[in-house]
Write a structure and sequence with these properties.
The structure is a single chain. By secondary structure, the protein is an alpha/beta fold. The chain folds into 3 domains: 86 residues, Rossmann fold (3-Layer(aba) Sandwich), CATH 3.40.50; 239 residues, 3-Layer(aba) Sandwich (UDP-N-acetylmuramoyl-L-alanine:D-glutamate ligase); 132 residues, Mur ligase, C-terminal domain (Protein-Tyrosine Phosphatase, Chain A, Alpha-Beta Complex). The protein is built from 16 helices and 22 strands. The strands form 4 sheets. A 9-stranded mixed β-sheet has the order 9-10-8-11-12-13-14-15-16, with helices on both faces. The protein has a 6-stranded mixed β-sheet with strand order 17-18-22-19-20-21, sandwiched between helices. Strands 3-2-1-4-5 form a 5-stranded parallel β-sheet. Helix 6 links the parallel strand 9 and strand 10. Helix 5 crosses helix 10 and helix 10 packs antiparallel against helix 11. The longest helix is centred in the middle third of the chain and has 16 residues.
Length: 481
């Protein structure tokens, strides 16, 4: 970022991340071109927010805008092996992701050009969360805790607000050197293109098979997640899920080869660990040896936590560990656990009708997420699932579907594959769309049942995104009389 002014920078991929990166780069004096294979009509929601100085090239990737670029900034959805990107990198053009750009600009301080660190003097750092499932809830809860503890934070990343956009807004308000922490959700896609990204605190909440349409193996996917701690060292901390075997492989396979490691802590529902653990219905914090300022004591009863579900218990423990290690007062952590309402589309209660409870879990886009959601209910479940397959292994759902699912209502491109994998276990119905699926689920349900939308698939075959799918589900549910 030292010589950004008047440099030709190509941003590849528009949407939220591309718009944020382009605006921030333009604000700092770069000559910015944004390119995307999608058309102007497909990107109409993002174009109006761009600064007038940003050049748009849509519908194609002309070779010249890559050949003449001093740097490429890649949006998370764009694979690094895309031919024009790979060719530019082979010629020595620097290639970084939007996440890397945000963190470099946030922490860099220079008088020429006039770029100041966002962080208050003596403060500052990045708190980053990744994982397959639950990372959005964990990130939002962590931010809630830090704000309640009196810290000034910026929330962004994969959670929906591009970090570059949030930093751009902060600078536009003249709020440099006014932030204690950036709290960020980071995805495996974002971590693929980091260089110097180094969070003060990081957490991997879990790793289960996902995005295997992009990664060749679970190991490759895990290695992408593990990059969150790649540059961490002395003075940093890492919080890991002790109960998750793939997450623990990061500790045994990746960290052992480093010469300088962060302090490592854990959370667990099954064992007493150095960090946060559950025992006899109570959550304890246990940092007395490595973090002397935090007592080994009971934190909160599990049933006092406002967000419900097995997965949310793990999310709560991960967020609590990170907040306490970042200096948040323990009272603020406890109050936050009692008050935080949860996020839309994550096991979200919609309504009760005729004794049947309806839940929107549209963010359950992979098999692991659905398994956690199914574990959260004792009542018989009518499960609405399906969408665009991400090379998921639906057979992993067989035991819980057989034990807990009263009926399976399938939609979308993956409905036939899911039917073959699970249809022999329970009553299974194919629906033409989500509205019909809701109507069918109502007919199949009885008082005391749960109707759960938890698709185990991406949404792009029928919807704009998982949020669009969740809101259409809620609309159909609320329209029933």
């Amino acid at each position: 970022m030292r010589n950004i002014k008047d440099k030709h920078i190509t941003v590849v991929g528009l949407a939220r991340s591309g718009k944020g990166a382009a605006n921030l780069l333009s604000e700092l004096g770069a000559i910015v071109t944004v390119t995307d294979l999608k058309t102007e009509d497909q990107l109409k929601d993002f174009i109006p927010g761009l600064k007038p100085s940003v050049r748009l090239v849509l519908g194609s990737h002309p070779e010249d805008i890559f050949a003449k670029a001093d740097m490429l900034v890649i949006s998370p959805g764009v694979p690094l092996d895309t031919p024009p990107i790979a060719m530019a990198a082979a010629r020595g053009v620097p290639v970084i992701g939007e996440l890397e750009l945000a963190c470099q600009i946030a922490t860099y301080s220079s008088s020429n050009p006039p770029v100041s660190s966002l962080f208050r003097e003596g403060r500052g750092g990045l708190l980053a969360v990744t994982g397959t499932n639950g990372k959005s809830t964990t990130t939002a809860l962590l931010d809630f805790m830090m704000k309640k503890g009196g810290y000034k934070t910026i929330l962004g990343g994969n959670i929906g607000n591009a970090l570059t956009e949030e930093i751009y807004k902060q600078r536009a308000k003249g709020k440099e050197q006014n932030v204690d922490y950036i709290v960020a959700e980071v995805s495996s896609f974002q971590l693929e293109s980091i260089k110097d990204f180094r969070p003060k605190g990081a957490s991997i909440v879990n790793i289960t098979p996902d995005h295997l349409d992009r990664y060749h193996s679970l190991e490759e996917y895990r290695n992408a997640k593990a990059r969150i701690c790649e540059n961490q060292g002395t003075g940093d901390f890492l919080v890991l899920n002790h109960d998750d075997p793939e997450t623990m492989k990061v500790k045994s396979e990746k960290l052992k080869v480093k010469s300088e490691n962060p302090e490592i802590y854990f959370f667990s529902r099954k064992e007493e660990v150095n960090g946060i653990y559950l025992k006899n219905g109570v959550i304890y914090c246990n940092f007395q040896h490595s973090a002397p300022g935090i007592p080994h004591s009971a934190l909160i009863k599990a049933d006092e936590i406002k967000i419900k579900g097995v997965h949310n218990l793990e999310n709560a423990m991960a967020a609590s560990a990170m907040a306490l290690l970042a200096g948040c007062p323990i009272e603020a952590v406890i109050d936050s656990l009692k008050e935080f309402p949860g996020l839309e589309h994550r096991l979200e209660f919609v309504r009760e009708l005729d004794g049947v409870s309806y839940f929107n879990d549209s963010k359950g886009t992979n098999v692991g997420a659905v398994l956690k959601s199914l574990e959260s209910f004792a009542s018989p479940i009518i499960l609405i699932a399906g969408g665009r397959d991400k090379a998921g292994d639906f057979s992993l759902m067989r035991q819980l579907v057989g034990d807990r699912v009263k009926a399976l209502v399938l939609i979308g491109e993956a409905s036939e594959k899911m039917g073959k994998a699970l249809g022999d276990l329970t009553e299974t119905v194919q629906a033409k769309d989500l509205k019909e699926a809701v109507a069918v689920s109502r007919k199949l349900s009885a008082e005391g049942d749960v109707v759960l939308l938890s698709p185990a698939c991406a949404s792009f075959d029928m919807f704009r995104d998982f949020e669009d799918r969740g809101r259409q589900f809620k609309k159909s549910v609320m329209e029933m009389q």
